[in-house]
Amino acid sequence: MNRVYAVLLCLFFSQLTLSSYAQTILGIEEVLAEVKENNYDLKAASQNVASAKAMTSKYNRGYMPTLGLNAGIAYNLNGIKSVFNFNFPDLDIQNIQAYNGNIGIASTYLLYDGGQRKLRNEKNLTNLDYTQLQLENINQLLGFNASQIYYSIAQTMLNVDLLKEALSISKERSNRAKTFYQYGKVNRVDVSNAKVDVVRDSLNLITLDNDIENLKWQLNQLTLRKDLDYTVDTTFALAYQNADLTDLESKMLEANKELIVLRKDMELLDFDLALTNKLNSPQLTANGAYNLNYQKNSSKSQIDLNRTNGLNLGLSANWNLLDGGQRKLQEQLVNINQHTALIALRNKENELLMQMKRLWNSYQNNLLTMRIEEQNIQTNKENFELVKALYENGQQTSIEFRQAQLNLLNAQSQYYNVRTSAKLQEIEFDYLIGK
Asked: From the CB of residue 158, how many other CB atoms can be counted at a distance below 10 Å?
């Protein structure tokens, strides 16, 4: 027992020394900033925004004319042989050479398409807003996850502080039990129980230290930190103790990121319907071209040189009067998609309202539990001090002393756990109302 006791104490204090060496306090705002700057999911979503932004470029708006240049050159080597029925001499000419060349330039510009071009540009701008909202939604979700881990670390650190104090008391009790045993005031069982409690408190502390390390690794997955040499701020406050449920529900329906994305999706479907209604609109296009053709023949040809050039300007119109019902089919499909999107929006609103009500009730219960636990801590603290004084005077057993110590420890731990739970619920409030 003595050997196990010594080994565990050495292990605990070595781990405690390492965990407290050169650690800086990492604030929640710094964590959120690191997530926003380093997280790969956000970087991937940013590429979607960049792609959507490229689609709104002036080169994709349909207002730029097209201009093309074409040219060609050719060499011909021909021969002619003609035999006539009448009294004409035969014609036999070989190796007739000719050089041909042409160059041309053509341009087109869409003058009118029934408003499709304008609608497509507005849809691209709306799609850019949509991808930016998706990016904000991912950023908020990652911040929500990081905050939950952060305050879980804070809660565990508070429990570590409690257990450190409990271990200090247990070691003092162990030393006192040894002294009492030397003077015959207690038996070996009391000494052994005191040592067992020291070992148990040490093991609990080691477990909590490992929990903190694991939580830090989880946080590092979001922030891309590579070291664990930091601690977190445990002095957080609650911000929604005076909040109103109706006000929170109103803010949520207005600013929740998921709802905004769904509404923006419906807006995009409105553009799809408008574009579908204009599929068969007439189109008017302006055309212009200039062409130059050149031909140089050999001396055996009747024509030595031939050159033509010309400028062509015109308008062309196109109106699809009958498309076999394709426009009607597309309109029906878009209407179905709109109805589906509206159902998804209403379902999400109802789901979030139910989530808000459950969260609010749980939050209120935690606030009430906190007030009760505060009173419970004070009662257990007074009881512990009384039992401790009686124990030191030999009027209480070590079992009664340990039980009073555990009662105080449990009350303090429960208070910290409930307070952290309330803080995590406040983070969920922030997430629901779009903060």
From this structure: 18
DSSP for 378-410 reads HHHHHHHHHHHHHHHTT-S-HHHHHHHHHHHHH
Cα gap 12→45, rounded to integer Å: 44
Residue 428: what residue type? E
Query: Does the pTM of the predicted model rise above 0.90?
Result: no
Q: C-alpha 227: how far from its chain's center?
A: 23
Separate counts of helices (H) and strands (E) for the chain: 9, 6
Which pLDDT does position 169 carry in this prediction? 82
Q: Where are the beta strands (DSSP E) in 39-158?
A: 66-82, 91-112
User: Which CATH number does the domain 2-63+115-281+323-432 belong to among 1.25.40.80, 1.20.1600.10, 2.120.10.80, 3.30.460.10?
Assistant: 1.20.1600.10
CA gap 158, 233 in Å, rounded: 10
Which of 111-115, 295-299, 325-329, 378-382 is least confident? 295-299
Quote the tokens at residue 262. 């769904």
Q: Where are the domains of the chain?
A: 2-63+115-281+323-432
Q: How many residues does the chain have?
A: 435
The shares of helix, strand and coil residues in the chain, as percent rounded to the nearest 5, are 65, 15, 20
Task: Give the pLDDT band of residue 301 (cuts 50, 70, 90).
Answer: low
Percent pLDDT > 70 in the chain is 94
**What confidence tens digit (pLDDT) does each residue in 50-80 have?**
999 999 988 888 888 999 999 999 888 877 7
Write the CB contacts of 11 (distance below 8 Å, at least 6 apart in sequence).
202, 206
Sign of the alpha-carbon dihedral angle for 118, 122, 123, 127: positive
Tokens of 183: 């003077």
DSSP state of 85: S
Do strands 91-112 and 283-297 pair parallel, antiparallel, or not at all (unpaired)? antiparallel
Q: Could you give the 3-state DSSP secondary structure of residue 225?
A: coil
Closest listed residue to residue 320, CA positions, set 281, 276, 272:
281
CA atoms of 44 and 376, how far apart (whole Å)? 50
- Provide φ and ψ at 39, rounded to 5°: -65, 135
Kindly give, in sequence order, each residue whose CB lies less than 8 Å from that of residue 294, ignoring residues fewer than 6 positions away.
Answer: 100, 101, 102, 306, 307
Strand partners, 109: 286
Q: How far apart are CA 41 and CA 210, in angstroms?
A: 28
pLDDT digits (tens, 9 = 90+) for 151-169: 999 989 988 988 888 888 8
Contacts within 8 Å (CB) and 24+ apart, 13-21: 15/206, 15/209, 16/205, 16/209, 19/209, 19/212, 21/229
User: Where is pLDDT greater, at 249 or 189?
Assistant: 249
